[in-house]
Give the backbone structure.
Amino acid sequence: MTETKAEENSAPSSFERAFLKRLSCALPDSKAHLIFWSLTLTGLALDLWTKKAVFDWLGNHGNVSVINGFLRLVRVLNNGAAFGVFAGKSYFLTAISVIALIVILGVFLFSGTHNRLVHVALGLFTAGICGNLYDRIFNNGLVRDFIDVYYRDSHWPAFNVADSLLCIGIGLLMISTFLTEKSVQKHVQQQK
């Protein structure tokens, strides 16, 4: 008699089964993890390696032209965010980066999306955040930028690989949103 009670208590209820089924459907599959984590780690490694390589190579020489009149490598220590926003507020920018990282990990782990483009975008975005966050934490709040795109006297603000990964990630999320909206609209029109 006690054995049947133990078996009844160990068997999951219908509510527990439904919850576990919903949870397993919401969690990313192994391919999503492979995409996300490989892009995150590869992107972070590429960013940190390029920053170190370029800064060591340039030394204190200033800059080297790559494509005359368009692209050069420079040594810039940025104490702000994109375009110098929040300059000198490294604690604030570090906190924002940590919060953004937590949100992105939450979206990846619990959004239930099976869209591979979103997984790619989130992986690139995470790599970009981690690359600049590493600099803020271990480089006295300064981010190492080294890519200078210019035309004559007009210069785009210097940036790095992490910034590029962030921009590509945002672009892919926008494309994914656009494609998803188109798909939903097409599905709704077919149902009418």
Summary: The first helix runs from residue 2 to 10. The mean pLDDT is 87. Residues 79 and 85 are 9 Å apart (CA to CA).
